[in-house]
Amino acid sequence: PALRENFITRIFACHDYQQQMQDGFNVAKLVDFHSRYKFLVMAHSPVAYRELGRLVASATLFNPAHLAERYLNDLMQALKNIASRKQHANVLQHLQGFFKKSLSSTEKGELTDVIHRYRQGFLPLMAPLTLLSHHLRQYPNRYVAAQRYLNPYPEQLGLRA
């Protein structure tokens, strides 16, 4: 299942990238795309997360055609890695941080506990994702809502366990 999910994630990321750039590549589009995919990349490869971040930050130094191709290639390489529980938990904790002023201490404790229990292998990934989605509906945050980590492909595929 993890290999299939990984493959499907790459297909949808590549398609999204091509859709984003269909009218021509520019740095603003790359920044927008990267800002939506950064946590997904972080889950699959913390090293690639940092490297892609540096690449985007220095985007104006590169030939646009070369940059467009390099970014997509590096993204696909990063997403080939299977995300571990530890890496997912790290991303979930980062996303939890966006709600630190919104959540009550009870809600924070519950989310922290669910992420911890997921990391230890007692809960499936859907448990913290569902709770995070609940908090996102309760306390809207456009930046978090735009993150492809939360929905890397259509939910109807039912791949996330």
Structure description:
The model has no long low-confidence stretch (mean pLDDT 95). The protein is mainly alpha-helical and 161 residues long. The termini are close together. It folds into 2 domains: 2-80; 85-147. It has helices at 2-20, 27-44, 46-57, 64-80, 85-97, 105-119, 126-138, 142-145.
Strand percent estimate: under 5%
Question: What are the segments in which pLDDT stays under 50 over at least 5 consecutive residues?
Answer: none
N-end to C-end Cα span = 9 Å
Secondary-structure-based class equals mainly alpha
Looking at this protein, list some descriptive labels.
globular, 161 residues, 0% strand, mainly alpha, single chain
Strands, helices and their partners?
Blueprint: H1 2-20, H2 27-44, H3 46-57, H4 64-80, H5 85-97, H6 105-119, H7 126-138, H8 142-145
Summarize the structure.
The chain has 161 residues and is an all-alpha fold.
